[in-house]
Amino acid sequence: xxxxxxxxxxxxxxxxxxxxxxxxxxxxxxxxxGRKPExxxxxxxxxxxxxxxxxxxxxxxxxNIIHTYSKxxxxxxxxxxxxxxxxxxxxxKNCIETGINYVDISDHRGFTSKALxxxxxxxQAGVTAMINTGIFPGISNSLVxxxxxxxxxxxxxxxxxxxxxxxxxxxxxxxxxxxGLQNHFEVWKNNKWEFVxxxxxxxxxxxxxxxxxxxxxxxxxxxxxxxxxxxxVKTVTTKFGSFPDFYNHLTWMTAHLFPVSWxxxxxxxxxxxxxxxxxxxxxxxxxxxxxxxQAKVIGKKSGKKADFCSSIIHKDTATVTGxxxxxxAELILSGKLNKPGVWSVENSLSTELFEQLIQSRGFxxxxxxxxxxxxxxx
Length: 378
Hints:
Layout: E1 4-8, H1 13-25, E2 29-34, E3 50-53, H2 59-68, E4 76-79, H3 90-98, E5 101-104, H4 109-116, H5 119-125, E6 128-130, H6 135-148, E7 153-164, H7 171-179, E8 185-189, E9 192-196, E10 203-207, E11 212-218, H8 223-230, E12 235-243, H9 246-257, H10 260-263, H11 266-287, E13 291-301, E14 304-314, H12 317-334, E15 341-343, H13 351-360, E16 363-368, E17 371-376
Parallel strand pairs: 1-2, 1-4, 2-3, 4-5, 5-6, 6-15, 7-12, 14-17
Antiparallel strand pairs: 7-13, 8-9, 10-11, 11-12, 13-14, 16-17
């Protein structure tokens, strides 16, 4: 029987990238959802993919639709309807109740914490639920795992991300950025939790070409929560930056000079998101919409201090997000990834499976003594 995949929020930039990856690498029957009535949809992003009108606010309809996917154990629900700052765990809860495997591209600490509380329920139901998939979080977690595995005693994890312009991900990514500036957040530093201010403590990272040296800043990501509990390290940093660099300075001014009440006003956030998106529509033409991630780990190997970096680079952020989530979905559908419970990527995806996944998508691995870089082959 053919697997059926329901992608909630699949009509957006990220959701359609996930659908496109699955349509390319699996034989699944794929249905994507969106809030627009079907009569108003002129074309579906991927040929052969079905469309279904669905608003997550209509919880009874969400429950009924998910229940229709319970007829076959090989089916899968993928949650791509961000931003996740304001999402509850209703979709995950319904999947566990009906015994359907689950994947999401969530990228918010609060959502992550709530989702992990369902781990025992998912385990009892035999449901494999993978959260925080995509590029960051997602592939970033696997890069960290690979770097950690190089050490006898890992001590520090330093995750750095840079995105060109809009990242090709639409206005949603802008909303996520500005929502991430609203509150101080906890990070694991020197074996204790402490609060830091978003978009503070600029650090210059030398990313793979074409980015080179780019400033990055503290940013609240789920990895700062999950990696600190997944690995026995003293420090975890998660820092984000934009290209071109002047966007970093604009974001810094927003985070540090705007009154907190403005940053927590939904109207202001939407205004800033729309203006920023219009700006990136102009600058994307020369900055590109790519992404680079560096996962640097410092620790001890054979009694000596050392460091190791795992990095990845891709020309389009939305596309590689689809690869991260779609690849994990493919592994679940094929039975290669079967681990009941609710998991972040680093706790469930082996480095061997990660490399199989990424290489099947056209990435090549470039190694040196102290680093590995994944990039799409020519």
